[in-house]
Specification:
The chain contains 12 helices and no strands. It is mostly helical.
């Protein structure tokens, strides 16, 4: 397998753009007193990075068009979903806890604790997007494996989000736990989907010879499992939904599998 060159200057050029976008979003959060709006920006930062990498790449790069389409579909759907979900609901309780732990002057601290931190993470995790355009290696079976994994991820992420949104719209489900559909096989189909999507992007980058982009999916996996994903969400959900303890006993935490009796 070929080894693609790492264009450090092109990668570095993305960071100021993400910092500016994060800073402008932080300014918007101040009058709203709601730092959760950064979640709507998260996927859009990757799309911005991908466009910049694409503009700086060889226009003959065989992965240029389809990689940007995959990225655009994922970024637009996720940003729209999160924005629609959060409209009129105030700051997410997880951000409220961060706010409480970092008083006084959280308004200022949130610039680097929340917004710049996410910009920095997005910059690092965007490495496979840079890598996909790093060579003109012909498209092969590794690319198709990456696209298939991306598709599986989109089905789990978008499908899980849709099923959860529909479940929550029914007042009869107040305080209940969703254990049907994709949620029957994993307690976090949306996080598992995100996992697949980023490993899919990595396989496409690997096919281009960008083996050096491996930190990105590893960091994303760690975040999903140990930081902002499964671990954080399940820390107190049992207190808010008493049925969740039984759900934990019957359902896999992350990787899908048959329900246990």
């Amino acid at each position: 397998m070929i080894s693609a060159a790492f264009d450090y200057h092109l990668w570095l050029s993305v960071l100021p753009v993400l910092i500016v976008a994060a800073t402008l979003t932080w300014l918007l959060s101040l009058p709203l007193r709601n730092v959760a709006i950064v979640d709507s920006l998260w996927s859009l930062m990757f799309f911005a990075a991908g466009v910049i990498y694409g503009l700086g790449a060889d226009p003959r790069a065989p992965r240029l068009a389809f990689e940007l389409w995959l990225l655009a579909i994922w970024a637009a759907r996720l940003s729209f979903y999160i924005t629609a979900r959060n409209v009129g609901k105030g700051e997410d309780h997880r951000y409220q806890e961060i706010r409480a732990r970092n008083q006084p002057r959280f308004a200022l601290k949130s610039l680097y604790l929340v917004f710049w931190l996410q910009a920095g993470l997005a910059w690092i995790i965007s490495l496979p997007l840079l890598g996909a355009f790093a060579s003109n290696a012909p498209i092969g079976w590794v690319d198709y494996a990456g696209m298939l994994l991306w598709l599986i991820g989109m089905i789990f992420e978008a499908g899980g989000d849709w099923q959860l949104a529909r479940f929550k719209r029914d007042p009869a489900n107040q305080g209940r736990v969703l254990n049907r559909g994709l949620w029957r096989y994993t307690r976090h189909p949306n996080y598992f989907g995100e996992f697949c999507i980023w490993w899919g992007f990595y396989l496409i980058a690997l096919a281009a010879g960008a083996w050096w982009s491996i930190p990105a999916p590893l960091i994303m996996t760690f975040m999903l499992l140990r930081v902002s994903g499964v671990s954080l969400l399940e820390r107190d959900i049992g207190k808010r939904r008493p049925q969740y303890a039984d759900y934990v006993l019957k359902t896999n935490a992350f990787f899908p599998g048959p329900a246990r009796k």
